[in-house]
Structure formats: C-alpha cells, structure tokens
Amino acid sequence: MWEEVTEQAESTQTGSQENTEGCDRENSVTQQEDSSKQCSADRHYKYEELQSRPAVTPDSDIPENLLHLSHSFGYDSRHRGNLQLLDDRTLIFIAGNLLVLLDISTKEQRYLRSCGGGGIGSIAVHPSKEYFVVAEKGNQPNIIVYEYPSLQPYSILRGGTERAYSFVDFNHDGSLLASVGSAPDFMLTLWKWRQEEVMLSCKAISQEVYRVSFSPYNPGLLTSSGSGHIKFWKMASTFTGLKLQGLIGHFGKTATTDIDGYVELPDGKVVSGSDWGNLLLWDGNAIKVEICRKEGRNCHAGMVQPFALEDGQLMTIGSDGVVRGWDFESIDTADSNGDSSMFEVEPMNEMVVGHNVCLSSVVKSSLSDSFIWFAQDSSGAIWKLDLSFTYTTPDPECLFSFHAGSIQGLDVSRKSHLMATTTLDRSVKVFDFLAKRELTTSRFNQGGTAVSWAPPLVNQSGGLLVTGFEDGVVRLLELYDPQRLHVVTGRSPKGDAKLRLKQAFKPHNAPVTAVAYERNGEMLATGSSDRTVFFFAVGEKYTPIGFVHVPGPVQVLEWSPHSHSENRLLILCQSGHVVEVQSPDPEAQKPTKTFELPELPSRSFRFRSIKSQIKREEEIARQQAVKEKKKKEREERLKESQQPDAEHEEEKEDGEEKEEEGLPPIHIPDPPSPLYCGFYSQPGQFWLSMGGFDSGFLYHCKFSEKQDQDPDQRQDEPFDFLPVHNADDDPIRSITFSSNRQLLFCGMHSGSIRVYPLQPGDHSLTSMQAYWALNVHDNQYGHLRHIRCSHDDHFVLTAGDDGNIFSFSLLSPEELRKGLQRKMAKVPSPRVGLENEPLVQDIEDPAAYSIETAKQKLEKDRLRREAELKIAAKRKKLAELQKKFKQLMNNNQSLPEHVRLKPVELQLDRRFSEQAERLKAQRVSEVRKHMGWEKERCSIALRKLQDWFRDSLEANIVTVVAICTDHRLSTYRLPVLTEAVPRLRRQSRPSWAEGDGAAASERRKSRAEPAKDSSKLEEEEVLRHPVARPAGIKLADRQVERLRKAAEKAEQARAKIEKRKQEWAQLYAEKPDENCEDPQDVQAIREAKENIGDLKLKSAKDFTVPKHLRMNAEKKRAQLIGLEENIREKQTEMNRQIMALRDSKVRLVSQLRAQAQQVQKVQQRLAAHLHRPLPALPNMLPEETPEKKLLYSHTTLERYRLLRQQRFQTMEQEEDEEEATSLLGQLENEKEEEEEEEKEERGDEVTPTLSASSVTREEEETAVEEGTELSELEEELQREEEIRLLHEQDSLLEQMESSVCQFDTELQLLRHQKLRLDWQLKLADLRQLTLYQELLLLKEFERREDSLQEKLNGRVKEENNITCKLEECNAQLELKHGEIAKLQEREKALTAAFQASLGKENKFEEFLTKVFKKKIKRVKKKEQTGNEEEEEDSDEDSDEDDDWDDDDSDSDTEEGEAALDNVCPPGCEPDLFENTLQLRERRLDLEELLVEKKKSAEALKKECDTLVKKVKSLKSSRKAAEDDLELVHREKQQKMNELDVVVPLRLSQIEFVTNGMMPSDLSPALVLDRTELSRLQERIKQLQVEKGQQRDLYCQARQQHVRLIHDRKDMDAKIQVLEKQCNQLMMMKYGRLVDLEALQTLTGNRTLEELKQEKLLQEAAYAKEIKQWDAKVEEARHALMEVTRCNTERLLTMTSLFNQKKELEHKLNARQKKMGRQFQDYRRRVDQEAIRRLRELVKTQSQQAEALRREIGLLYRKGGHVLPPGQAPLPPLAPMSTPTRRTHASRQGPGHPFKQLKAQYSPSRQGAN
User: Fold this and answer.
1) CA of 1715: how far to CAs of 1709, 1718, 1729, in Å?
2) Angle of helix 1272-1398 relative to helix 1113-1164, nearest 10 degrees?
C-alpha cells in the first residue's frame, strides 16, 4: 500500500517553483503485516488503568470515590465537529473531560473519561465503525484509539503535539490517521496508528487549524483549513525519503475568510466554504471561481460548509439552517466569465431544517444505501435529516435539545430534586436530576442571565422561580404539574411540568447578574451590571421598595444568615468593591420622585492586592531559613577544623551572604483583579476569591472604619488570607456549602471540582487543608461558574461556560437506590384557581422603561401638568387685570382735567416701558424695510468698489524689509482667476473616426444575431420505431425521480457540450493568422520609423507632419493655458515664501521686544557703568502689513464722519480754493501720527524705568556706604550675582543680534531666488508671446482644415459603413452556407432513419422507398405572423409554385401510381407505412427550406460583389481627401516656421565661429539645448548597446522558435498517444469506439426502468414459487428419510441373508462349480448395464449444466447494463427445458419420491462440481 502512495505522490509532485514546505519522515514507511499484528497482540491496555482519576491530598481520609457521576444534561454544541456516529443507534460527543455515548432510541448515556485529565480536543470514528479515536488536551496529550463495542483502548499515540489536538481524521481505508495540534506548535502528524508510530510530521501553519482530512480519491493528498487559510498537502517521495509538501491557498482578489469545511473532488479540485455564504472552487492553490446563486445572491446566509459529494450532488450546510444540494458537474466545470470571478448556479435540492438553527457539522448513518444524516446544531440541538430529496422525504426531526453557549444561571429546589438553568439562548429549562431527564423549557425574547429558586418561606410548594434577563427584566415563573389540571378542567395537557409567568417587572437597564431572597423571605434583591441593587417586597405581587447605587457591576448578592444579629445584604462587585447595606424597611414612607434610597445605612470595602507582599514575606522567610542553615554549617566546620586560614574562609562566606537574592517587588495590578465570589464568615467579616494576579488565595476581609472616604479612592487590605493549593493560575469561580457546612464545594476556573472537608463551626476555614479534585468541564474555556448541592445533600450540580451541566451523587448508585424512595422528583401541584386566572402581561420590548425610569417620567409629566395649570391661572388673572385697568383709564378720562391723572403718574410698573421699547423695535424694523432698497443700492456700490480695487487681486503686494540692510523683497501682483477651471480648457472635439467606429461597432453588434427564419422547422429527434410495450407497469417514486434527474443531467450535459463547442469556435476565431504580427512589435516598428533614420527638419519643404505631432488651435490653446498655470504656480509659491518670511519677522519683532524687556530687568539690578546699549528695535512698516489699511473700528468711522462734515463746511466757505487732500489720506496720516506718539510713549516709559532703577541703585549704594560695611561673604555673593547678571545681559544681546542676522540672511537668500525666478518668468513671457502668435496663425487655418477634415471624415464614415455591410453580408453568407450544410445533414439523417425503420429483408422495401422519394404537390403552409412576413411568404410561395408546376408535369404521367401511394398494400404494417408518409412530409419540408436557403445565399453573394466595388471606389476618394489635408498641414507648418522666436544667449554659448570670429549673420546657425545635445551624444552610445542587445534577443528568439517547434511536435505526439489510449480504453470498456458526447447526453430509459420493475415483480413471483418448491423439497426430504430408514432395515436383513448365503455357498462350492461360472457371467452383464446407465446420467447432467449456463447469461443481460449507442442487442436465447423436466418430475406419483429428489438435485450438484 505504501508503495502505491509513494508512486501517487511522485506523479502529483509539483515543480520547483512552487512554494512547498516539507518535513522528513520520522519512521520507516513500510512494515510487514505479521509484525504489526504481533505488535498489536503484544499490547494490552485497560481503560480502568488509563482513565484519569480524582486528585486527593495525600495522607488524608478523603475517599477517592467521593463523588459519582450521575448524568450529563448539556452539550457543547459550539465545539467544532462534536458529533460522531458509532452505529445506527449510538452517537458520541465531547462533554468537557468526558466522552458521552448516547443511545438514540433509549436516550441512555455511557461515559468515558479522558486519560490525561486535561480535556478532549477532537474525536473521529474509523470507517469500519470498529474503532474510534479520542484526541485529548493537556501537557503532551495523547491520542487513544478505542475498540468498539468493547470500549477498551487499542493503541496510544504519543508525542503528536504540545498542548491540545484540534482535529483528527482517518483516511479512506482507515490505515492512516491524521492529527493536527493547536497553539503553539500547530503540528500536522500522520500516524500508523496500529503500530503506534509516527509516519510523517510537519508544522501545518502558524494559525489555528480547524480541520485536516485525506482525499478519498487520491491517498497521497491531504487538505487542511482554518483561520484565514487553506492548505493543500501531498506525500512526495524524495531522495531522503517520504515527505509532506504543502501549498498555501492564495485568495487573490477574494477577501480572506476562515474556512470551516471543504470537500475534495475526484479531479483534485477542492470546494470550500466562506464566512459570507459563497462557495470557493480551488484549483491548485488558487481560487478558480467563487460560486454564488443567480443575481449575485449568496449560496447561504452566513457561514457555509460543504460536507459531502453524493449522487452527483455537492451537499452544503449553513448557519442559516438550510441544507442545499448543488449539481456537481456544473461546479466542477465552473469557470469565470469576463472580469468577474463569480459563477452563478442554483441549487438542485433544498431542505430548511428550521428557524434559529445553525448547522455546524453532519455525520451519515452507518447503514448502507441510507440517506439519513445526523446534524450538529450550534444553537443547542441534534437533528435527524433525510436527504433523499424525494416527494416522500420526512421533515427534519430534532432528536435532542440542549442549552447553547455558557450556562448563565443554575439553582436547585430546596424541596425536591429539581434544577433550573438559563442561558443567553433565551431559554429557561427545568430538569429532574433524579430521573435524569428534562421536564420543561420556556423561551423568551431575551437571554437569561440569572436564576434563583424561591425558598420555602416564600413558596411552600417550592415551585416559584426568579429569573433575570439581559434586558434588565425580572420574571417570576411558577412551576406546576399540568397533569393535575384535568381534574378541574377536564383537559389532559402534555408534559410532566410547565412554567407559567406569574409577574414581570423591569428594575434595571442592563443585564440582571444576581438575585437573592432575604433570610426571612420578606424581601427580594436584584443586582445588575448597571451598578444598582433593587429591593422588592415579597407578597402575592412583588412591589418595589427602592434601589441603591454600588461602585461596580454586581457579581454576587448574599443576605446575612440567621446567626447574625442584623439583617444585612452583602453586595460583591466585579471591580473588587464590597458593599454591605442595611435591609430597607418596606413600611417606610416611599418617596414620590424616585425609588433611590440615599439614606440607607451602608458600609463599603475596596480590595487592595496583597499577593506580592505575601510572596515577598515568604521569600524573606526562605532566605532567613537558608541563612540560619548556612550559619550552623559554618560553625560546625569551624569547630571541626582549627586551621590558620579559617578566618579568611569566614570573611569569604560573609561576603557571599551579603550578595543576597533580590526580593520580589510590590506589585499592584492595574486594572484591579476581578472579584469572582465570596461569602459571610462573621458579622462584618467575609471571604473573597479574586481572579487575575490575586488568584491563589482566599482573602479574609472586614469593613474598615474609614467609611467617610471616597470608596473609589480608598484602599482596604485583607486582615488574613488562606493559600489555595495549585490555584495561582486557577482561581475559585464559585463556592457553595453543604447544608451542615461540613463540605465546601469549589468550582474552579479550569472547570474542575474541589471538595474540602471542614470542621463544624469553622468560619475561619482553618480546617480547609486536604481536598478532593476532579476535572469535569473543559480545562480551557469551561469555567465552572455555578455549583450547587441538592436539598438533601445527596447530589452536586455543576454548570460551566462550555455549556455542560453535570450531576454527581455523594452516594454510590446502589446506596442511592436504597436511600431514595422515589425514582423521580416531585413537581409541585398547581395553585387552586390557576386555570381561571388570565395570562400575565409580559415585557417583550427590550427598550421598555425600567421601574425607576417610568417613575421619573411620571414625575416629569406631573410637574409639566402643574406648570401648565399655573400658566393658565396666571393668564386668566392677567386678563382680569387688563379689563380692570381699561375700566380705570376710562374713569380717569371721564374726570375733569385738573383732577385727571397724567400718563407719567399712571406708570407704576417698568414692564410697561419695556413693552414700549419692544414696540419701538418693531417700528425700527418697519423703517428698515422701507429703507431696504437704498441699503441694497449702497451695498452693491461697495461691492463693486471692492471687486475693482481689492478683490481683483488675490492678495495685496507685501514688501519685506531687512533689519540691518536696505534690501527689500516684494510679492508678485497676481490677479484673481475669474473661473475655477478656465473655460479655455475645453475638451477636444470627438474625432469623426471614433464616432464612426462606435456606430459601426454598434451596428455590428445589433446585427450579430441573424434573423430567424419564420418558416424554420424545429429541430427533430430521429428515433427508432418504438417497440410496443404492455401497459400497466407503474414505476416507483424513486425510479421516476431517477428518470427525471437523468433527463436533467443529460440536458445539462448537452448544454455544457454546446457551450464548449461555442468556446472552441470562439477560440479558433480568435486564433491569430500565421502572418499576423504582434501589436507590440508593430508599435515598436512604427516608433522606430518615426524616430530613427534620416528625419527631415520642420523647415524642409518635403517635411510631413506626423499625426501625433499635428497641431491645431485647441492644442495650442491648451499649451498656452498650461504655460500660464505654470507661471502662476511659480509666482504663488514665491509669494507664499515671502509671506512666511513676513510672518517670521512679525514673530521676531515681538521676540526682540520681549528680550529687550528682559535686558532692562537685568540692567535694573546692575550698576550704570555696566549697562550695554540696547540695539535699535525694528518696527513693522506699513508696506509690510498692507492688510491693516482696510481694518477699521467704530472710532475710525466716527472720525471719518467728522472729517467729511468739516470738508463740506470748508468747501462752502472757500469755494475758490483748491480741493483739499482726500479724506482717506488725511485719516491715514492721522493714524500714523497716533502710532508714532504711542511709540514715543513706550520709549519714554523705558527711560523713567531706567532712571528709577539707577536712582534705586544709587540709593542702595549710598545706604551701603552710610551703613555698616558688608562682610566678606556678602561681598562674595554680590560679586557672584553681578557676574551672573552680566552673563545674562550678554547672552540676551547676543541672541538678539543672531536672530536679526539670521533673518537678514534668509531674506538675502530668498531675494536671490526671486531674482532667478524673475528671469525665468521673463523667458516664459517670451514663450507665451510666441505661443499666442502661433495660436493666431492656427486660427487662420482652422476653417480650411475643418472643412477638409469633415470631408475626410465623411469619406471614412461612408467607407466604414460599406465595410460593415460587407462584413455583415459575408457573415450572413457563411451563416447561410452553414444552414444549408445542416439541412443537408438533416436530410441524410432523415434518409438514414427511414432505412433504419425498414429493417433488414423487408419485402416492401422497394415500394416504401418509392413512396418515400415520391414528389407530390402539397398545399403551402402559411404562418400568420404579421403583414411583412405574409408578403415575404407570398413572394416565396410564388417561386415555389413555379417549381411545383414543373413537378406537376412529371406527376401527371404517373397518376396511376400516385393513386396507389396513399394506400397501404396488403401485408405491410400500417404503422410502418404511416411512418414512411410522415418521413416523406419531413423530407419535402427540408427540400423546400433548402431551395429557399440557396436562393437567399445567391442574393447575398451578388450583394457582396457590389459592396466590394463600392469599397474600392471609396478608398480612392479617401486617399485624395487625405492628400488635400496633408497639403494644408504643410502650408501651416511653413507659416509657423516663419515666426520669430526670441532666445537670449551669452557669448560663451555661441560656438558658431568663422575664421576665429563670430559672423554677423547667424541665420545659418542652429540653436540647440545643451542638455539635448548631451542626450543625443549619450543616445549614440545607448543605440550601440541596444544594437547588441537586439542581436542577442534575435538569437534567443530564434532558439525559442526552434524549441517551440520541437515542443509542438512533442505535443502532437503526446496527443496521438492520448488519443490512442482513449481509443484503447473505449475498446476495453465498450468493445468499440463510441461518441462520448452522445453517451453523456443519454437520457433515462423509461422502457428500461419498466423492464427493471417487471423484473422485480417476476423475481417476487419466482421467489414465491421457489418458496413453494422449498416446501415440497422439505416434504420430499422427509420422504427420503423414511425411505432411507426402510432401506436400512432391508439392508440389515439383506446382510443377514448374505451371511447365510455365504455359508451356503461355502458348503456348496465344491459341488456347483459350473453353476458358479454362469453366475459370474451374470454379474459381468449387470456391471456393464450399470456403467451404461451412469454414462447416460453424465450426459443428461452435462446438458442440464449447459442449459443453466445459458439461463445465467440471459439473466446477466437482463441486469440493467446500458449498452453503448449504436451497439445492437444480443439475440434472445432459446427457452430452457429445465422447467419442463421439473414439471415432469413433479408429475410423478408420490410412490417415487427418491426419483423426484434425484431429478431436482442432480443438476445443482453437477453445476457445483
């Protein structure tokens, strides 16, 4: 076998250029079978010895069998490939550290524990179903091969990976096993599992691998896939041995995707799935095509996995819960069309499993010819699917349903053996863990996050559940037995239990994480991740009390037990905060605005990490112990050895002690470690279990006394701790106690259970030392978050994040059966009147208001209503006051004037004046409306002035002045562009040739499909004369479906063949001619002709302007615009640099002023004789900031108004004087004077400051002189301060000088750049002038050129039209010839069909042939399809009638014979005669159509000749137009050559010298660019190099040409060899050469199916007859036994008589010798007669054997084998005589049973012999 694998791998080995990776074989490849059997026989493994066992602390009294596994209620449905089938009734799947064997019919479970205890990674089943594989997880995990059904280990495979196996799979025959590991090694290993040897090993990839499998068609190929990759492997034989070589799949343009599933195809291709739902077809290591549905729809919604190739269908499953079947041949031959890589196909069959179903893997039933599959649903179910896709296919059946995902909540009843669970799959389940079954399931709109069973104090029956959900809703669910309702209602509901919603309320806006009842059952607390805890009063209806805020998301809620004096609630938060609140009083007065309880007494604790401190103290203690030990050893050594060097040794050891190891640092994790669980120990004290860095300990904590600090800032440390063995990386996730608190159960992060025995009353957990541990859930992701004890402490329930739920019993199964009286849990009875209560309204909207939000909304609504009522009352009061005031005003007016109150006296409230102001503002707005026109006129005038004087420039001219020099630098004056994109840049006019070409191509496309002939006959299928079959045989549904599929397959094959023919035709049409040249070569030759050779100057008279160099006005205008844009771009860039320099000067001026102030401050503290003069500070000149001229303020406008009034007054008084200066100039002068005054004031400010400083300094000196003398220290400090100030003064002055110099340098450099740019712009201006002159010249020629170009375009257009017509005519002519050929072929086929219908030796052959070939006059068939078609038909009919008139003359001469043509002669079959008449009608139709096609072909031929002549004449006219246009171009070029171009040159650039002097006439000189000249010189050298390269390329091309010729010959020889092999294979398989296309297009034979059905019916009848014959044979056997018994008795009698006869013969021997001689002659005759009878018997048996052989051959021919097309069936056999002989044998009487048996069994014995 291995030799075949090696040969196959060598045949499929890729080239050296492929990206392969291999690894050497680790063990030998071949081994003898006897040695492998010997090895397997020598190994004896026992499961009991290998299975993992619980870990028990040594020297403890804990029994090893403390817990007994009772049942598994979960299913890890999201584990890849977690479903396998052992036989037709046993499923296996992984459940944490267990392998569950599930009986489908009885639902019983058997378990196998993992051997390593680290979990199970993958499972696989051997193809023979006799073995299955369990690949484990852990450190250096093993692969265990088990036998089935013994469940004993057969072999153990070691060393395949480091941490875990992710997938295992057998090859097709089960001899090899492939495994792939997970991180970190991702090792791919091939095993010889029977010998426990590694065959090959190699790293798969550096990413997660989901699957690996062998190809079922090629044993040397493998495929692996996973996260963002797929890889193709092969086992290749190299000189170093067998290797694994892998090719990574390249996605190309397709998005990278994770690949979960794939299917290998027989031809080596692979079909894989994708994340977005389409299939990917891989050919080699690249995607050939992406397969989708019609109109670009995805094959599946979401992830898709192909899983099988069955009955010509590719089966796929998807996360949308649908199974689809796709046509295999369509996918296998799929190819992309055009640029798109998509291939569209529709599924053949489809099955929708269900909604909210996500299929992830499937396994097929082990029964042969079965269509049953079992599917793994990631949503938590196992399905049974029938994928036969027939009309009788049953619906999908859900065999088992489980929770999907991690278990969010678990709790047990306190009165019965019931358990409730909930997960995010929106379901709540109730289990009877005593009876090991699920009782009921309820589903909701949101996922469940917490569940708790109400204590008996709340619900006596124990049937109330409190469940929290992820939308913040809490639901009260009642559990009851529905079977007990029929007593009241008379109904008989289904199920043993049911959950009913009792109440729903929403206290939170985030997931509910914890619920807990108070110890007296009077209150319920709910916690959420929204950092709130809500309290409810327990009653018939739960009423809200209030809520409190906590520092973090709530993790656990625990009420204080009865042993505590106060009733408090302990709140554990995930962030490490612990809060204890006093139980609120439900009877207290409730606030109306909010449910928050801010005054509720509480204490808080914030955990601070002490683990690093603990580790540090342990390290100190360890080092101290080591020191003490060393000290003792040293003292003992010193006592023993009294040597002189002892002191030296002691000093050395002391030095070593000083070099101690470093202590671990104190580390506080950030962010803080999460808090997992905790519980009360004593009042005010509690235990905590932390995760992350702080895992490995239980921390004993208590609330601190510093409760007034902020809980977010306070750090509280535990006062005690308890180390947990082996828990540094495995923290405790959940804790529970038994009812007597003598057992502590811990759920670990690794999914294991720990049980600690405790002493009674041990709240400090001092007895928590020894423990019992067992790995149960998955060690990687199966965190054990929930662990509970049953109410009687007999069971322990666990639930983890891997979705598994386990029940354990503390008693052995035998003790459990004895101790428990019931075999199932008791379900509570329904409440009285439950059936009459209406259904409770549920909260289904996730966005519904919470209780607090609804409360606040009600409060806001109440406040808004109160405000509205107050506003209405105020308005009413105001109306009354207004009415009263109006009445008072009227009364005031009615009084006399001297008594009447004035308006001022009536104004008592200032709001009236405000109202007046509002009225005034209203009137002002009205005035503005009136003055709107004048305002608009003034604004327009202002805008015009701004556009003309300011906005016409992009920016003002800015002049930057140097500081120390007189250099100036000004910006360019740039006008604003009128348009964003200049209108001059118009697109070039579309060329006439392009338009004509497009039109021609459009016409060519529109006429690509020939007009269909209205009279064209439909394609007929010439069939043989049907053989009459007896009716009444009804086919089965499966046979009808098979016939339909066969017909569809044949139709698809026919379409595929037709498509392939079209592709071949297109390929041959695109095949270049032998004389065709490469377009690239043609382009290169054209460029060489244009650029190489004796090129003419533009000034030459015979210069022809190339087409690509021809210039027109539009191109020249584009050049002019491009030059202008380039000039503007350069100026803009220079302006930007100058403005940047100006901005830097502004910053420098401000910096210098600041530094000057610093110098002044320094000089204030120095003596006057030490002051250095300040440099002159620069100022910004007005020309450097011109934008400030247009800045104005309100003061400026007011000053302008005053100046204008003064000017008007002066003009009125002094009319004769000249006009004064402009107002703006005067205003500007005043502003400058003000600025100068401000500068002087700033200068004056500096001077008094300096004088003041000097006075102060003098005063200080005087004070020093007058006072006591300074000490030496004070003088030293004074000198030091003076030196520092001098240094600071010098450094500031140097910085100012360097900044000024640097600015001047930058300005000087930029000035040089601007000068260089100026002369470049001047040259650009000259170039612009030249371009403008050329543009004017081109405009003069534009009209003539356009007219000639239009004329030429007309000629070209007409020529293209005629050419298109000619091509269309030629195409139609070829099409007509093809149609004529097809009609002739159909005529030949019709004649052949007629000959086939006659058969051989038909006596009416001559007559029927004459009838078939007879020409008759027929009535013309007209199709009413429209007026135009009727006219065409009438014309054609007229021509055809003429032909028939000619035929009538011939037909009249044979009127007598024609009369006999329509009558069937006696003896001839009527069906055959009728068939001949029909065939004659078809022949006549074909002849008429053939004549018509020939006529149309002749007409097309004449039209083609006419068009050819037109094309020749048009070409000559087009050539003349081109010549005229060329003359215009030459004239235009000559005019352009006459234009003068200005080129500034230096004398050093002129090399045109005559006799050592420069001539006065430079007209013969040539102006060249120096760079262009050097380029030409360099080009000469390049051309020499290119010449050599071209010569080498020519040699290489010639060699390649010769090599291609040899390759072509080799390819032709290879094609001939392949054709020969194909022919040989045809001869071997079919016996002759056949047409494969015809074989593929064979449809299903209904006659054959009917024969098969008839054969089945006859076989049933024969079986019944054989059964009857068997009964007769049994009767005959009994008769034979009776006859044998009688014969035995007779033989005994004969023996006795023979003995007597022998004695008589002995006595009479002497006396009767003559009589003895006669007796001998008689015996000889008897022997001869017996020999003759035996010979006749042998002859008869040989005849019967020959008859049986003929019968076997006949039955073999009836076996349904399809003969190739054209092969005649074998002649029927003559009837057998065996039944006749049997009949004769059966007709013999009952008196000869032995003869009957001999006649029946003798042929069979002979055949057997």
Assistant:
1) 9, 5, 22
2) 160
Contact 121, 182 (CB under 8 A): yes
Question: H helices of 348-490, where?
Answer: 486-489
* Nearby residues of 213 by Cβ (< 8 Å), 6 or more positions away: 169, 178, 222, 223, 224, 264
Q: Are 26 and 200 in contact (CB under 8 A)?
A: yes
Q: What is the dihedral of CA 1358, 1359, 1362, 1365, to 10 degrees?
A: -110
Of 1018-1022, 1242-1246, 1366-1370, the least confident = 1018-1022
Confidence of residue 988 (pLDDT cuts 50, 70, 90): very low
Question: Is pLDDT of 1606 > 80?
Answer: yes
Decide if 581 contacts 589 (C-beta within 8 A): no
Vertex 727 angle, CA 725 and 728, to 5°: 120
Largest Cα span, the chain: 209
DSSP assignment string, 1040-1060: HHHHHHHHHHHHHHHHHHHHH
- Our CA angle for 1119, 1124, 1126, nearest 5°, is 95
Instruction: Please classify residue 246 by burial: count the beta carbons closer than 10 Å to its beta carbon, then call 0-12 exposed, 13-18 middle and 19+ buried.
Output: buried
Share of residues in the chain with pLDDT > 70 (%): 81
Mean pLDDT value of segment 1048-1052? 83
Phi/psi for 885 (5° steps) reads: -65, -40
Contact 810, 67 (CB under 8 A): yes
How far apart (Å, rounded) are the C-alpha atoms in residues 503 and 537?
13
Write the DSSP string, 614-658: HHHHHHHHHHHHHHHHHHHHHHHHHHH---TTHHHHHHHHHHHHH
Structure confidence by residue, pLDDT tens digits, 515-557: 999 999 999 999 999 999 999 999 999 999 999 999 999 999 9
Q: Evaluate whether 273 touches 305 at the Cβ level (below 8 Å).
A: yes
Helix or strand (DSSP H, E) at 698: strand 697-702
Collapsing DSSP to helix, strand or coil, 1779 comes out as: helix
**965 in Cβ contact with 1304 (< 8 Å):** yes
- Neighbouring-strand partners of residue 102: 91, 109
pLDDT for 1778-1791, tens place per residue? Answer: 433 333 333 344 34
For the segment 665-690, the average pLDDT, to the nearest whole number, is 92
Q: How far apart are the first and last CA of the chain?
A: 36
Q: pLDDT digit string (tens) for 561-618?
A: 988 989 999 999 999 999 999 999 888 767 778 899 988 889 999 999 999 999 999 9
The DSSP letter of residue 328 is: H
pLDDT at 304: 95
Check residue 1612 and give its pLDDT.
92
Exposure string for 1148-1181, b = 16+ CB within 10 A, e = fewer: bbeebeebbeebeebbbebeeeebeebbeebeee
pLDDT at 1789: 42
Q: Are 405 and 384 in contact (CB under 8 A)?
A: no
Q: Residue 1401 has what DSSP assignment?
A: S
- Annotate 290-321 with b (16+ C-beta within 10 A) or e (fewer): bbbbeeeebbbeebbbbbbbeeebbbbbbbbb
Average pLDDT for 741-756? 94
Note whether 803 and 407 are within 8 A (CB): yes
Please give the radius of gyration of the chain, using alpha carbons only, rounded to the nearest integer: 55
- In 10 A of CB 339, how many CB atoms? 5
Residue 179 CA neighbour count, 13 Å, CB half: 35
What is the distance between the alpha carbons of residues 201 and 191, in angstroms, rounded to a whole number? 9
- Higher-confidence residue of 102 and 815: namely 102
Q: Which two tokens stand for residue 94?
A: 């992984």
